[in-house]
Input
Amino acid sequence: MTRQKPDLFYERFLWQGGFRYVAGLDEAGRGALAGPVAAAAVILPPNLAPRALEGVLDSKQMRPSQREMWAARIRQVALAWAVGYATPSEIDAWGIVPAVHLAMQRALEALRPRPDFLLIDYVRLPDCPLPQTALVKGDQQVLSIAAASVLAKTHRDALMRTLDARYPRYGFARHKGYGTRRHREALARWGPSPVHRRSFHCRAAARGLSESGEK
Output
């Protein structure tokens, strides 16, 4: 049963089973037309105070100001955290699912200490030898996954604001690369930039680019 708020139920079960470093993983930017896909990995300490991250939810359920506030708190209290990316060209070359796997692997490679168990929102990492569990709506159930969703989202948003300064015609700071009407109009007028996903743009153009929002 899905719990009302993410908690430490899964982490505590694994800690009690002898796993010391349990990492939650999630991604942001899977459905965007521009920019990378980001993935974060977060290891929470077993002695985490019950109320330390009480406001952390699935990032889609939080306002931008809430995400930024709690992202700072997550970085402060986490035992370890890291963010990895897969570029638009990698997404075009291999597809979005392998690119998500790649971003997650990069986050894990940067994580210290190394995790000994993974809790992942929805996907499994087929080339990763670590024991892992994929959970449907994991970002709504598992606190370390929810924390990872917040870090992936806020770090990717910051990167898209940087790209907005480089490519100001597209409004990346506003829509973060997702297929909003304003973004579609800019694409129709200016064509894709070097940070657009060409495979996404072509498929979306063939379908008329239906209205979509950001994660």
